[in-house]
Structures
1.
Amino acid sequence: MNKMEQEVVYLSAAIDLIKSMVNRAMFSVAGDGEHKNIWFESSTHRQLFSILLVDFLSPTDPMAPVPSQFFLAALSSVAEKPSFEVSESVRNLKEAVGTFRKWLRVEIPVNAWLPSIDRQVVLRIPRYVLLKIDGNISKHNSLRSARVAAELQVLLIKAGEPTELYQAMLAQQDIYDIFHDDVSAYHASTIAEFLNGVWWGIQNYLQPEYHRSFTPPEDGLLIYGFKCPSEIVHPYAKACYSELMNQVQQGPIFKPFIVTKHHKGKY
């Protein structure tokens, strides 16, 4: 696939994944002005949000028809060399992706009491690593998450606590209670704000292309279409382009929102 075709595939997949997390079935947005937060429909929805977030923070499948990249890295590349930019339409996307990536890389201290192995420890961990551990433990039981336990073992050793792998496996539930019910729960509203911002960045970027390509129905027909750029010839990319334009036509589910500062001062 050429550059434009790859971009279309990445953008279509990114919107699809964000939409699975940022929707009214998952949560509602409450509050006024710059003091909003989100309320999950249930603890199960919050757990699903954590699981889906792992996919968004992970590389794409190497067997896919585009090079394997982390979603945010792919979006960053799109923002740096956009194929559809008109009058700086990509600016919001570049800002949204850059701010989110910077936030995710911040290393935070987490004070953790681990009764299963009788340890009190301060873990220093980048936010994106914590969120991926949370989501992976949400998805798997202890015998399906030995790799997660190995990550925890490294974190504990780094914190000055010599730890065997079996001890890290025993500590997984303690870690999960802290990561999922405390840190991730605290940051959920902020993460939703970031994801919604990225979605709106894609929306604003592609609006000019949508208006260029939209073909209204003719002769009383109800079927509309999109004029695909001549550079897009791969059948999969063509299908993704149509889906992408349909997504732009529908637009993001939530208006842009800003989460209260009380969800941004800790961790």
2.
Amino acid sequence: MKIIITILVAALLLSSCSTKTFESKKELWNYLNDPENEYSHTKTVNGVDFSLVYKPTDLLVDQELSDEMTDSKIDSLRRKYDQYLYFNLSMSKNNQELLSNVAGNKQQFGAMVNQLAFGMEQKVHLYTPQKDTIEMADYIYPRMYGMSGATTILLVYPKKTMVTNAEHMTLSIEDLGFYTGEVKFKIPTKIFKNELQLKFE
């Protein structure tokens, strides 16, 4: 009887840890954007819409894959990108980029361009329940020159043991000049532990 129980428990653990694989990027993004799956989070504060989405490793792998779609190449890229956590942070006001909302104020516009391009590591923070801060590894802010409905930034953090051991992490965004105060998102770490994957063919 003990052996049967052990086998059942092992099977349950294996099934709960199994990796979810998607046939296409569209299917994966649909899953990520469903709030019930806890990969995406949204808030609106003082007219500013914030959206935070965790971006699984395979979406980065897909961006770099060329015609050489061999198993060894895919595994190599997965190892490369799996060392980090990636988040898409989008912010908009009046369905426009943040810069579009200060375009009439030359001084404020210049300050915000500088902040978005060079200073977001001072404005965005990721930390554990014990208030241990994870230092940002990098971020990418592509200038869209008013052609997008939101300011979108890719945030990159090292995937440290303290991150995966905690039940949740908090990502906070300091006020960027729109009187929002500090905006916080509580992120469950279970989404980091079993990476969603794409089916590469």
3.
Amino acid sequence: MPKTTLPESSGAHDEDVIDALVQAAFVTMAVLNRIGAENDLSLTQLRVLGILRDRRPRMAALADHLGLEKSTMTGLIARAEQRGLVARAPSAEDGRAVDVFLTRTGARLVERLYRQVQDALAPLTDRLNAAEQQRLRTLLRRMLAPGDEH
């Protein structure tokens, strides 16, 4: 039976796009899991460090972003503190809240992890020319931007 093609504006899901997106996610997750394991980090710890790379969120905001309970987040951050990767301090904006941030050791590790991820994914992204990479970046950002859910 031939596949029918619906107009883009119909809101129909293109199975090939979904399949390609899932395959890309699996490849990316495998890279992240491998790099995390090589550095004795869980995927969640890797995510936390990635988030802290360029910001200093409150504990509550970090927990919300990751979809974790406050107690789980507290334990996760405590373990990272024991390793000297992160620190906590009262928020400058609200003394009752606690901010989380990378230590110098944590920042060095994050930069090394970032380079490892870049190197591991480069064989895939290098298959695209500069214009294709820009288009992919634009499309992914649009897909991942907060907005109206259908």
4.
Amino acid sequence: MNPKSSQFRWVLAALMFLISFISYMDRVNLSVATPAIMHEFGFTKIDMGLLQTAFFLGYALMQIPGGIMAEMFGYRKMITVAASFWSVFTALTAMCSSFTMFAAMRALFGIGEGPLAPSFGRFIYRWFNPSERGRGSALFLGGMFIGPVFGPAVTVTLMLAFGWRSVFIIFGAVGIVLAIAWYYFATESPRDNKYVSTAEANYIEAGMQLSTAKEIAPWRDFMTSSQFWAIGIQFFITDYIMYVFLAWLPMYLMEARNFTLTSMGIAASFPWAALCVVTLATGFISDKLISSGVSNHKVRTLFGTTGLAICCITLYLGAVTTDPWWNVFWLTLSLGSLGFTFNAGWAACIDIGGKFSGSVTGWMNFWGNIGGVTAPTLTAWLATTYGWQAAITFTAALAVIGIGAWLAVKPNIPLVRVSPVTPAGPVLPGEETC
């Protein structure tokens, strides 16, 4: 191996981006195909909301177990298994012919995706120097959020050419290919990877405490921590808002704003494009600020609260405007602003979680996806009972709760205190961080 530093961690980051991208393409496909599925099977909006909820229920229930398994069995295996599992059930969605079959496939799809986020949280902690974790988190999130940018247009194109079933089969096959690539290229330790130079491994592990021991997170201590609950509450709110967009934006634009299927495919991509750009930019900016000496607490808290505040205001403006394209403009600013909050939340999990970042990420994402369980069906009920404006206004108001929760996260204080790093001998191959 060339003694100069390699940059293979960024190759794996790019693969992480692609896997995250496909995972969200798989999610958004159902919402885009909703009008066609409702027409073919006679489903109501409430029915479609329940199908979205079936996914989020399976997904949420696997967050904490997924984090524990990532720490015990390793993120290489867990990500490979998760991507393969959910891709199979994505493809099988094309075979559904009843509400019960759709619900079962979506729940199993959610169970398969569950370990992904906590496993990548552990991967980011292990493969990125602390000064790069904002960018690592941004690439994971950017992959997820760019999925809905292309999802509506690609899904509409495939639907018009081959029917809605083709969408699920094609994306299921792509997911299997990416799972195989991850297993081939990823390793648990940078030092075990044949593509990583000694210089790169030394840089990644600088300042880390290393151990071969596998430990279970101290859940009893976590459950009495206000930080632990705060990071879950803020993400419940953030994800609730995002999942309203994910589950209902296509239908909302067509039903409430009179967009055609084709124009909706274009308009629905703008908010997700903004979210992706802001998330990626926030990762770079936050790493730069922290490297310059600004505290984690100030950077994460500032971005976390600012994103929710902007989201609250612009989402309300989107709800009350009468012009369809002004509505798209405000919705774009609203969802885009959450990029500040998402990046801050995921990076804060690694800040406060340390060697237990998989478990902390799983906890946060569990609560976020309780928001995902709630958002599709509650929004459908509000829109059916009181109209779309009331449903969107209610969603905007929830952001205030998230702002309050962020003030208690305190990203500069680890959940588990560790003693200062002391000089040690050479790091042995295969050693893990703690």
